Amino acid sequence: MPKHLAVFPGSFDPMTYGHLDVIERGRKLFDELIVAIGRNPGKDVLFTADERLELAAELVSEMTSRDDGLAPVTVRAYNGLTVDFARSVGASALLRGVRNLSDLQYEVQQAVTNREVAGLETAFVVAGQSFAYTSSSLIRQITALGDDLKALSGMCPPPVIAALGRKKASRHPMLERLRT
Fold it and tell me: Of 25, 76, 87, 99, which residue is the catalytic one?
């Protein structure tokens, strides 16, 4: 039987418990999973590609360190089209998390395009109820405008909150723009 490798692409700026939930559930569906950290030229980012890669690798390592018999996960950065990256690693599918109807509409459009253009299927995982309204952009807004980053503890793992605190302390330009 062929191995079923999935790619979970995203900017992960920053990574959330919702992302980790999708990864954990993807480990149950596929033989192998690659968390693919991409660059969207249309998006301004808070964390550099290297910082996002390092944070994701740390969080995935914590998740996969226990011997649970689930699929292994690697974290890789890529440039260019997601479908080109997925084909280059031999993926049989893309894994996507869906939080709500707005996500679903966008994701279905992307899935149809990816299948037509690259012959690549997409598997959707519906977000758990506690993650349905968590987004990286919301987390960046709370970081920019909030006084206490502990408020993010239900949305982000501690290493992410610590990294957000460092960005806030350094007065990162993106966070400063969100404040005005």
Answer: 99
